[in-house]
């Protein structure tokens, strides 16, 4: 494992939603101590954190302010949808679906 693979990294995304033309954007990015600070701030403010070394490797190539690439829409949409459900934010019309899903781990 190289030093760059061992260094902690954090990439923050934000999705404004609403308009179909809006894609999630990179709003924070850092390595090492800055990554730790980004993660700590996310935890303090109740932002859910997802750890995925492969996804973070791809997202790390993006600049702050840049939209995620279309190739990541599906995976990011799944993560956003799951995070909303974990927070009790159920989209209209999903109530029946959620009742049938077993969330036990």
UniProtKB/TrEMBL annotation:
Gene3D superfamilies hit by this protein: secretion proteins EscU
InterPro entries assigned: T3SS_substrate_exporter, T3SS_substrate_exporter_C
Coiled coil feature spans: none
The keyword Cytoplasm is annotated on this UniProt entry: no
Keyword entries, A-Z: Bacterial flagellum protein export, Cell projection, Cilium, Flagellum, Protein transport, Transport
Superkingdom of the organism of origin: Bacteria
Entry similarity comment: Belongs to the type III secretion exporter family.
Annotated function: Required for formation of the rod structure in the basal body of the flagellar apparatus. Together with FliI and FliH, may constitute the export apparatus of flagellin.
PANTHER family documented for this protein: FLAGELLAR BIOSYNTHETIC PROTEIN FLHB (PTHR30531)
The protein's name in its UniProt record: Flagellar biosynthetic protein FlhB
């Amino acid at each position: 494992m190289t030093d760059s693979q061992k260094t902690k990294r954090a990439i923050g995304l934000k999705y404004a939603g609403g308009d179909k033309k809006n894609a999630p954007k990179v709003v924070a990015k850092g390595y090492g101590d800055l990554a730790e600070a980004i993660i700590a701030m996310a935890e303090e403010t109740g932002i859910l954190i997802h750890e995925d070394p492969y996804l973070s490797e791809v997202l790390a190539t993006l600049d702050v302010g840049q939209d995620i690439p279309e190739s990541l829409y599906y995976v990011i949409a799944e993560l956003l949808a799951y995070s909303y459900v974990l927070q009790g934010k159920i989209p209209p019309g999903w109530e029946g679906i959620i009742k049938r899903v077993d969330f036990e781990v």
